[in-house]
Amino acid sequence: MKKYFLLGLVLLSACQQKDIQKPADSKALALSINQSDKASFASGDVSVKVLNIEDSRCPMNANCIHLGWAKVSFSLTAGGEEVKGERYFGADAQLPKNDTEIKAGGRLFEVTVQEVTPYPCTGCPNQPASQAVLNVKEK
């Protein structure tokens, strides 16, 4: 059986904090979060906020020289200490290397981007706000 259990989080409405239930034996969660939203573990001692999502991926209906990437800027707060970080997502060969570990409140976490939606589209009306799926695991 896997040591870690991922917990899905339903979409958060803009600028709201939402507590997420975390099983006592788990140190990991996956959350889908909009820009400027904040989510926290049910214990309240760890929270993640997406500060900005920059998406330079090649739109699905365009011809591009490179594939591009999305950059997710976030803050992670643990034990009262807030640490900012950024992670890149995409298939571009020039994609900056992610250092997935971040230390806050004397604890070590691994933060990765699983997905950024919606995928860019040139001339597509009414695209929803950008959203990132982050995996956060305490090591």
UniProtKB/TrEMBL annotation:
Top-level taxonomic group: Bacteria
Name of protein: Lipoprotein
